């Protein structure tokens, strides 16, 4: 989220729900459009889908970033980072049987107030929540909170919990001591956990990308770069990371972390979001400010490890999901190449990126084409008569039946051709009688 422009997030385990967040959180349910008429309270996203508003949460003002709880929860638990640096756990439902109901309302407060720029849940240990904050000379900018104290490391100081209101049993808890503090006297602009190891955290700091190992927080691996925004890991290739700065996207290989393996130059306008497709290998989507175009980069197969002189093969193209400027977009977690985009005025569109179609003719004249994960074949119907078949098919079938090679009974060649063409039948009978009378005349003389 940047400024007052809305952002959009698909639910990780509710494939028919997404949330739009700007000044408030709005939960939508997406459904198939069974008729041309809209139901009351529904919005049309495309010719096939509509969205219905389920709930609105206005309890967390001054939102700067939002992260959806990675495990299944019927209440749709979210973490909200605020302008004062606080992280609040909130929800978009009221399921009293939810295992996470005791977490709703809990706040995580840094020592010094400053803006929270980014949040990232640990995908394996979902009790760990990392927050990236602006710089403060006397504090750390990367704080890792444990939303459940039972998973706190033995070396960590016990989490201090203070009741917000002693008279209110439903009041949340204020947590003021994080499990880990990283990045002292620095600013953190983006975060993501590395899937290969739940103890590794990649952070886009003020002037470098840093990999923190929570087993030894005094050391870090870092590379100096300006491309520190929007760090995100390719879900199909865990050593490949994308980040951006202004109008450039940097692609990193964590095995060779000295410099980017590839730099993608965008339009003069600054980038606002980059995201890997979760259902397609190596497909990266980028969005620039004040644009209705989403640019796609298809990273083709590259020998590994990536060498100094080798760059991945990139196929670039653009799609236009709507006419208006796009504020944000989100890939669907399971539907192939599908995304929802939102405009600054909260108009939404459901859009599918169609794959490039590759065509190939087979030696036997059947047509093959590939689209996404599907392979299609087009062949002539077997019941079609020889007169209706393509000439290449006719030639092949006649060659297989040894058409034209019967020199003893020449008239039979029309049978080898299918016996469906009267002109061909007349031709071969004519040739048969010509040869017959020629041989007869030669014998008589």
Automatic annotation (TrEMBL):
Record carries keyword Transmembrane helix: no
Keyword tags: Lysosome, Membrane, Metal-binding, Repeat, WD repeat, Zinc, Zinc-finger
Any Pfam family hit: MIOS_WD40
Membrane-traversing stretches: none
A molecular function (GO) term: zinc ion binding
Compartment annotation: Lysosome membrane
One Gene Ontology cellular component: lysosomal membrane
InterPro entries documented for this protein: MIOS/Sea4, WD40/YVTN_repeat-like_dom_sf, WD40_repeat_dom_sf, WD40_rpt
Coiled coil spans: none
Example GO biological process: positive regulation of TORC1 signaling
Family: Belongs to the WD repeat mio family.
Protein name: Wd repeat-containing protein mio
Lineage per the UniProt record: Eukaryota, Metazoa, Chordata, Craniata, Vertebrata
């Amino acid at each position: 989220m940047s400024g007052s422009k809305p952002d959009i997030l698909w639910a990780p385990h509710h494939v028919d729900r997404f949330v739009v967040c700007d000044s408030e959180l709005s939960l939508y349910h997406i459904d198939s459009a069974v008729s041309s008429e809209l139901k009351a309270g529904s919005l049309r996203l495309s010719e096939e889908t509509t969205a219905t508003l389920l709930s609105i949460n206005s309890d967390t003002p001054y939102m700067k970033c939002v992260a959806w709880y990675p495990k299944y929860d019927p209440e749709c638990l979210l973490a909200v980072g605020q302008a004062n640096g606080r992280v609040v756990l909130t929800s978009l439902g009221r399921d009293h049987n939810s295992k996470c109901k005791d977490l709703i309302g809990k706040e995580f407060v840094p020592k010094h107030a400053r803006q929270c720029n980014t949040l990232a849940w640990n995908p394996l240990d979902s009790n760990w929540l990392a927050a990236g904050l602006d710089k403060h000379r006397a504090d750390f900018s990367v704080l890792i909170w444990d939303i459940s104290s039972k998973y706190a490391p033995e070396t960590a100081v016990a989490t201090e919990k203070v009741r917000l209101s002693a008279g209110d049993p439903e009041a949340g808890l204020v947590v003021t001591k994080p499990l880990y503090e990283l990045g002292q006297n620095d600013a953190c602009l983006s975060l993501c956990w590395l899937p290969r190891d739940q103890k590794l955290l990649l952070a886009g700091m003020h002037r470098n990308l840093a990999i923190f190992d929570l087993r030894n927080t005094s050391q870090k691996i870092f590379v100096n770069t300006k491309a520190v925004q929007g760090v995100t890991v390719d879900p199909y290739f865990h050593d490949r990371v994308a980040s951006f700065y202004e109008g450039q996207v940097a692609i990193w290989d964590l095995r060779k972390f000295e410099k980017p393996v590839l730099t993608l130059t965008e339009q003069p306008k600054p980038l606002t979001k980059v995201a890997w497709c979760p259902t397609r290998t190596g497909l990266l989507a980028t969005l620039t400010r004040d644009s209705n175009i989403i640019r796609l980069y298809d990273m083709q197969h590259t020998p590994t490890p990536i060498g100094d002189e080798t760059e991945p093969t990139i196929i670039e193209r653009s799609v236009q999901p709507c006419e208006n400027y796009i504020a944000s977009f989100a890939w669907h977690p399971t539907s192939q190449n599908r995304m929802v985009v939102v405009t600054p005025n909260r108009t939404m569109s459901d859009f599918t990126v169609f794959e490039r179609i590759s065509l190939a003719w087979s030696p036997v004249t059947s047509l093959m084409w590939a689209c996404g994960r599907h392979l299609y074949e087009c062949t002539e119907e077997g019941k079609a008569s020889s007169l209706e078949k393509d000439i290449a098919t006719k030639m092949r079938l006649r060659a297989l039946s040894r058409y034209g090679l019967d020199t003893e009974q020449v008239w039979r060649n029309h049978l080898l051709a299918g016996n469906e063409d009267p002109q061909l039948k007349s031709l071969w009978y004519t040739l048969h009688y010509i040869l017959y009378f020629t041989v007869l005349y030669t014998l008589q003389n």
